[in-house]
Amino acid sequence: MSFDTDNQLKLFVEQFIKSHGGEAVNNQDGLEALLPEKLAAELSEPEYLNLQFGADSKGDHKISYGSPLLDKIVNSACRELPISVCRLNFQYLKTQGFNRLIKELFAFSNAVGHVDCTARVMTEYILLQCKYLAQSDEQKEGLLAFVFNLETGSEVPAMAWVLDDVEKKFKLNKNKINFSEEKIKTLLNSVQRNAGPALAPELEPFQASMNRRYRRDVTNLDEYYAALQQEMEESLKRPGLSEQLITDRKEKIALIPDELAKKKDDLFKKYSIRVSLELCGAMLIRTPAVKVLYQASIGRSITNISMFYNPATKSMDPLVCRKCKKSTFNPYFSDDLQIFCPDCIGS
Q1: Average pLDDT of the residues in 156-164
Q2: What b-and-e string marks burial along 272-283, b requiring 16 or more CB atoms within 10 Å of the CB?
Q3: What is the distance between the alpha carbons of residues 339 and 329, in angstroms, rounded to a whole number?
């Protein structure tokens, strides 16, 4: 994900504080925060904090990756999953132009269609904040945000990027939000399914660095063992060597390829990247939206599809593949009019 790291941290910290009954207000430098007494004691911090974000920020209460205060917040967040609740507000909600928008976004490979009707509705999304830790010869950590439409299950990554710019009102979640076991399992599977693509751009520089170091060390090994083998072979040409010494040296030369392969395998393990992902926060988002009933024709067959116009992203949410549950803007219809993604339609 490519949205600004400092804003990402700020959103996480703001959610954390509000979900624990505190208040947080944006200012020019970062956040002014008022912590409840219990949370202040847990973090060993005063109740009033002027939080600044970024590695270059100054002061006793700066937030950046690796900073002591962020570590304390993350450790607290991981002990009990905090869920905050917010309501999005929009002065204007789109009422027309859905046919054009759907045509621009979706590629219906074996169908044509049109909007049958629309209705303004309230719907819910959930934003899941996850902490990742990539470990190799060094380590890298950070946060990933996943957003899912709770009614359709579609992933809407762009929604995490624009939430900072949307008018919203937080409310203290005094009562636990009860999700069914099936809903929780579905969400966890969705995170696991989308983690790889989301992590790839985050870890690309880290992986490139480990690959460079691996290639450097392999080159040094090749050069070292090539020189060693050459030196040992040259030593066999010296006069006066006993047959036993020659035999022993030849046996050592014969072992060099296996020893080199073992050293390379050790290097591969050293620079391999192991990644863990841990859920550390969630936000339930309630928002007005437009539910669009789209009538699709596949040959002589007709089916109705429910879609959502998301006012936060100013776009349509993707559809969901019936088989793999991935989100897609390139739906295919099966003979029984079920939606599949391009990877699943032929399987």
Answers
A1: 90
A2: ebeeebebbbbb
A3: 11
Cα diameter, the chain: 98
Q: Which of 25-34, 93-102, 202-211 has the lowest mean pLDDT?
A: 25-34
The pLDDT value recorded for residue 1 is 35
Q: Report the 10 Å Cβ neighbour count for 165.
A: 9
Q: Tell me the two tokens of residue 319.
A: 């559809």
> What's the mean pLDDT when you consider all of the chain?
88
Q: Looking at residues 48-54, what average pLDDT do you find? A: 86
Q: Are residues 104 and 112 in contact, defined by beta-carbon separation less than 8 angstroms?
A: no
Residue pair 31/13 in contact (Cβ under 8 Å)? The answer is: yes
CB 109 within 8 A of CB 309: no
Residue 100 has a CB neighbour count (10 Å cut-off) of: 10
**How far is residue 306's CA from residue 94's CA, in Å, rounded to a whole number?**
17
Q: What is the pTM of this model?
A: 0.70
Burial label for 268, CB within 10 Å (0-12, 13-18, 19+), is exposed
Cβ neighbour number for residue 185 with a 10 Å cutoff: 11
Calculate the CA 139 to chain-centre distance.
Answer: 17
Strands 62-63 and 48-53: parallel
Query: 336 vs 37, 106, 319, 341, 342, CA distance in Å?
Result: 59, 20, 17, 15, 16
Q: Are 288 and 121 within 8 A, CB to CB?
A: yes
> What secondary structure, in 3-state letters, does 225-250 show?
HHHHHHHHHHHCCCCCCCHHHHHHHH
| Selection from 148, 153, 154 nearest residue 128 by Cα | 148
